[in-house]
Write a structure and sequence with these properties.
Layout lengths: L2 E5 H8 L5 H10 L3 E12 L6 E4 L22 E9 L10 H11 L11 E10 L9 E8 L5 H17 L7 E7 L7 E7 L16 H7 L1 H6 L8 E7 L4 E4 L3 E2 L12 E7 L2 H16 L4 E9 L2 E5 L5 E6 H8 L5 H10 L3 E4 L3 E6 L9 H12 L19 H15 L3 E2 L5 E2 L1 H4 L23 E2 L4 H10 L7 E12 L7 E12 L5 H14 L5 E4 L5 E11 L2 E9 L1 H6 L6 E7 L5
Parallel strand pairs: 5-8, 5-13, 18-21
Antiparallel strand pairs: 1-4, 2-3, 2-4, 6-12, 6-13, 7-12, 8-9, 9-10, 10-11, 13-14, 15-17, 16-17, 19-20, 21-22, 22-26, 23-24, 24-25, 25-26
Length: about 600
């Protein structure tokens, strides 16, 4: 997980109470943070974009700014003490000093209950054009006024932006953030798609005018994130009423709108592919900046089919059963204790006869089910206060029969000089059937495949073995490999319509391999499992005629072995003879 450093001085200031360093570390750990400890860092400021780079004593200063790619000055702007901790992915609201201090004030009983956020209508509007729908359709915006920007606050805001891109934004794919000096732009705003060579502006950290296409090729952020837009002929653009470019989401902001130490009021946008993620991300940023004295103003978002008012800072309502907390935590808790614990975690709580109505702050993206509230009750109550106890009943675990059989076969094959491989469960009909000269059978199809390479669930292991041999064709011969894994077979009698079956498949690639060799290895497998197998000659499209056999166990066909057909080898690009076997291990238990 990424590690962040939060200024101890700023954190103490926002907690509004002087506490010892040991107590601070203890509270952070009890909240679930993975703490590395205290250290001092040197800070270096990019003269182009204002980004602050923090360097540990044992680290080297990078040559370029991570935001705009400009050369960094080797002159430090000072040192500060920070507490270093890994980001807690489920709590993005604690990624910065503002959100973390808010959580700590509750945990320390300095300020409990639901935080309230006063908002005012900015009277500004963002018009979303229809042509952006299939590219990056959603946007949420806000104005934050009355901020006193210092190098520290600029660093906090930019780091929060970067970390939210990682956690909620999935590296800017689902959501990306833009922050602008409100004085440098003229409301209202338009969010639309334009051709990649349609207009020019100066991107952050640069000096000359550039088209989006040029930015994608030359700017550090363009090269890093242009793949998010490469499948589209047009790209998103955010403009003000004068036609000034604010940004190309999710790539880069413009140089003319950047935040400086003279900035007092800012305009924020969050764009993305998911409406909920976009709005939650904005709620986290706005609520965090309010901790630094910022006044939040809402903006109207006009979509072709409706209107949003953002940010939406209203709490959501959840229900928590009175018995659930005690039952899940394993400790009898009174209604008063549960209510107090929830309030320490900054929830609004109303107690009823058998349940609690819980108001969840807008910045809490992790509260989705009742169990999430119970977890917060346990954190506030203190895991260290819960007495461990053994479960009332004991059972003895035992290895499944199929796993015992698989382990015997695995040890047998490795003892015979085979190397184990693992291939993907997902494949496609071309590789799985056509290349092996097989007719397509019933198979489980992936409803929304991520690529054309992974559209079905495999029904056998042979194609995976052949693909692996192809990748190793230049290696020393002979090669012996095997795979033990599940395949998915259509079965209308089951609840899901399909069932997993455990199989083993192996292959030998070498100039002298033939039917006799592969048969000897199959016989060894059955001998080690104390079973006798019969070989029944068969014609199989993947194997040479007269050089393949079905494997018969107690009258049941449990597999096949033989020499691979030359056409199959040619289809896979293999130039050496190959023998294969496949056994249904589910029939051996």
């Amino acid at each position: 997980m990424p590690v962040i450093g939060i200024s101890v001085e700023k954190l103490m200031e926002l907690i509004r109470k002087e506490i010892g360093k040991d107590e601070l570390l203890s509270c952070l750990e009890q909240l679930g943070c993975d703490i590395e400890g205290y250290t001092r860092v040197s800070r270096y400021k990019c003269e182009k974009c204002g980004n602050i780079t923090e360097i540990l004593p044992q680290e080297r200063l990078p040559f370029e700014c991570s935001i705009c790619g400009s050369k960094l000055s080797s002159r430090s702007i000072g040192e500060t003490e920070v507490v270093r901790m890994e980001l807690l992915p489920v709590r993005p609201d604690m990624f910065d000093a503002g959100g973390l201090a808010r959580a700590l004030r509750g945990y320390l009983n300095i300020e409990t209950g639901l935080p309230t956020f006063k908002t005012k209508d900015s009277k500004y509007k963002v018009t979303v054009l229809k042509n952006i729908k299939d590219i990056r359709p959603f946007i949420a915006c806000s104005v934050i006024r009355n901020l006193n920007f210092t190098d520290e606050l600029v660093k906090i805001m930019m780091k929060l932006q970067e970390n939210l891109h990682w956690a909620l934004g999935r590296d800017r794919r689902r959501a990306s953030i833009g922050v602008y000096d409100l004085e440098s732009i003229k409301p209202d705003f338009t969010y639309k798609a334009v051709a990649k060579d349609e207009l020019k502006f100066v991107p952050l950290g640069m000096e000359g005018l550039m088209t989006p296409s040029e930015i994608f090729r030359t700017h550090p952020k363009g090269k890093a994130y242009s793949e998010l837009l490469e499948n589209f002929k047009k790209c998103p653009i955010l403009l003000d009423s004068k036609g000034t470019v604010l940004s190309i989401p999710p790539i880069i902001n413009s140089e003319s709108t950047k935040v400086t130490l003279q900035t007092k009021d800012i305009f924020i946008d969050v764009t993305g592919l998911d409406h909920n993620t976009v709005n939650k991300t904005l709620a986290i940023i706005a609520s965090s900046l309010s901790e630094f004295g910022g006044r939040i103003e809402t903006i109207e978002i006009d979509y072709p089919d409706g209107t949003d008012i953002t940010p939406d800072l209203k709490p959501t309502l959840k229900k928590l059963s009175l018995d659930s907390s005690s039952k899940m935590i394993g400790t009898k808790l009174s209604g008063r204790k549960i209510k107090k614990s929830l309030e320490r975690m900054r929830f609004g709580v109303v107690e009823h006869k058998n349940y609690f109505s819980v108001k969840v702050p807008p910045y809490r993206t992790d509260i989705k089910h009742e169990v999430d509230l119970v977890e917060d009750v346990a954190i506030a109550y203190g895991y260290h206060n819960i007495t461990p106890s053994l479960v009332p009943t004991m059972t003895i675990g035992e290895e499944r029969g199929i796993e015992k059989s698989s382990d015997i076969v695995r040890q047998t094959l490795t003892g015979l000089g085979f190397f184990e491989i693992m291939t993907l469960m997902l494949t496609n009909t071309e590789r799985h059937y056509k290349l092996l000269r097989l007719e397509e059978d019933d198979y489980a199809e992936v409803k929304n495949p991520v690529s054309v390479e992974q559209t079905i669930m495999r029904t056998h292991l042979l194609s995976g073995v052949l693909e692996t041999l192809k990748l190793n064709i230049s290696r020393e011969l002979p090669q012996r490999i095997f795979e033990i894994g599940d395949v998915c077979v259509v079965d209308a009698k089951t609840e899901t319509g399909a069932v997993d079956i455990r199989k083993v498949a192996g292959g030998i690639m070498g100039p002298k391999t033939g039917y006799a060799e592969i048969r000897s290895y199959v016989e060894a497998i059955f001998r080690e499992t104390n079973l006798k197998v019969d070989f029944d000659s068969t014609d199989h499209p993947s194997f040479i005629e007269g050089r393949a056999a079905r494997l018969i166990l107690d009258g049941i066909n449990v597999g096949i072995a033989g020499e691979v057909h030359p056409e199959v080898l040619e289809n896979f690009g293999i130039t050496h003879p190959v023998t294969l076997f496949e056994i249904n291990l589910s029939e051996l238990t």
